[in-house]
Amino acid sequence: MPPPPNIQLKFGPMLIGVFFNMILYGVLIVQAFIYYRTYKKDAPWIRYFVLYLFIVETLNTGFDMYMMYEPLVLRYGTPHATTYFPIVFPSQPIMVVAVSTPIQIFLAWRIKIITKSNWIAVIICFLAIVGLAGGIGTSVKVATIRLFSRKPELHAPALVWFCSACVADILITITLVRSLTQRRTGFSKTDDTIDRIIRLTVQTGMMTAIASVGDVVFFMVLPHTALNFLWDLALSKLYTNSLLSTLNARAGWNNLAGQGSTNLLFTEASGDAPRARKQNESHTNNSMMLGTTILELEEQKQFGEAAKRAPRDEEYGIAVTKVVERMVDPSHFVPETTQ
Fold first, then answer.
1. Are residues 159 and 136 in the same domain?
2. 3-state secondary structure labels for all residues of the chain
3. Which residue, 6, 159, 216, 286, is the most exposed by fewest CB within 10 angstroms?
4. Is 232 within 8 Å of 92 (Cβ atoms)?
5. Each residue of 301-334: pLDDT tens digit?
6. What is the rounded average pLDDT for all residues in the chain?
7. Same-domain status, 267 and 241
8. Alpha-carbon dihedral of residues 261, 262, 263, 264, nearest 10 degrees?
9. Nearest to 133 by CA among 98, 108, 90
10. Does a structural domain hold residue 316?
11. Domain count across the chain
12. What's the pLDDT score for residue 225?
């Protein structure tokens, strides 16, 4: 007679994972509300992309809630509850890759714009597509085997899914950090802002990578338990919240950059460059009225024209322009003699 199933190791991690998922869904609602209130001039396709992510995450949360309701309430006390996967369980891998794959491709596109390199973006897109295939394969396998006791048979497609996603997340983080580090200007205000962006990039990018690694480790080391679902069930929410936190942080960076003599412009990802140039020209005129001299560090060109050529960091919507204000020393001012 086989030993009775360990309910604590089977449903305990799944229930805690669903709790994490629901908590992060609440954070996601706030993030989405802030985004749509603050960035009304973002490109329409980006706003629709955020809407798509929100809809998928809403469905994912509903499916996860029913996934635990079925065995713990509907089938409570029956052998079916501990023998078979919940009916909606195959939706979990598909929902995760439906979120992670487009986000990774989106970040690969922005990395291409930042680095002007195609091969890094191609590698990230390839890994994202491989992860998508692995996630779909895992869902199909879950629907096929159905039994908890056959969970180790999910190793092959799940490893393809988790490992490719993990490598893609790490590559995205390293590339963004390296690119932002190279944009240091030597000005404290600008560099402080760039440091903040780097810290946020590491925190958000590595968060999803760590969750993917934890999922793989628990899945491989403890195949007959559900401990890997501590990570797995909240994974999609980590991806979406990471992206939205980066998009929403632009307003804070803009406020920080507005202080001091170094002007760091945060143009919207929608290509709102005309408005940014208008702000640049206004800044130039005000500086001239104060009797300051504006110098372009690389070439002594007109500031407004330099702003038009300033490279924009499409990942964060940054156009960096270095400005030096030189005040006249009153001690060297010689008043005109009156006749």
1. yes
2. CCCCCCHHHHHHHHHHHHHHHHHHHHHHHHHHHHHHHHCCCCCHHHHHHHHHHHHHHHHHHHHHHHHHHHHHHHCCCCHHHHHECCCCCCHHHHHHHHHHHHHHHHHHHHHHHHHCCHHHHHHHHHHHHHHHHHHHHHHHHHHHHCEHHHHHHHHHHHHHHHHHHHHHHHHHHHHHHHHHHCCCCCCHHHHHHHHHHHHHHHHHHHHHHHHHHHHHHHHHHCCCCCCCHHHHCCHHHHHHHHHHHHHHCHHHHHHHHCCCCCEEEECCCCCCHHHHHHHHHHHHHHHHHCCCEEECCCCCCCHHHHHHHCCEECCCCEEEECCEEECCCHHHCCCCCCC
3. 286
4. yes
5. 333 444 444 444 444 444 444 444 455 555 554 5
6. 75
7. no
8. -150
9. 98
10. yes
11. 2
12. 79
Domain termination residue (choose one: 248, 276, 301)? 248
Question: The pTM is what?
Answer: 0.73
Under the banding of pLDDT at 50, 70 and 90, the label for residue 291 is very low
Nearest-5° Cα angle at 207, 204 to 209: 115
CA-CA-CA-CA torsion sign (68, 85, 127, 47): negative
Q: What pLDDT is stored for residue 49 in this prediction?
A: 96
Of residues 90, 49, 4, the one with CA closest to residue 239: 49
The token pair that represents 35 in the structure block: 């985004």
Does residue 242 sit in the same domain as residue 265? no
Full domain range(s) for residue 129: 7-248
Question: Which tokens sit at 4?
Answer: 């009775």
- pLDDT tens digit string along 96-129? 999 999 999 998 998 888 888 889 999 999 999 9
Q: What is the pLDDT of residue 183?
A: 67
Residue with tokens 């960091």: 313
Q: Give me the residue label for tokens 């890997």.
A: 228
Exposed e or buried b per residue across 140-150, where buried means at least 16 C-beta atoms within 10 angstroms of its C-beta: ebbeebeebee
Smallest Cα–Cα separation from 172: which of 111, 263, 87?
Answer: 111
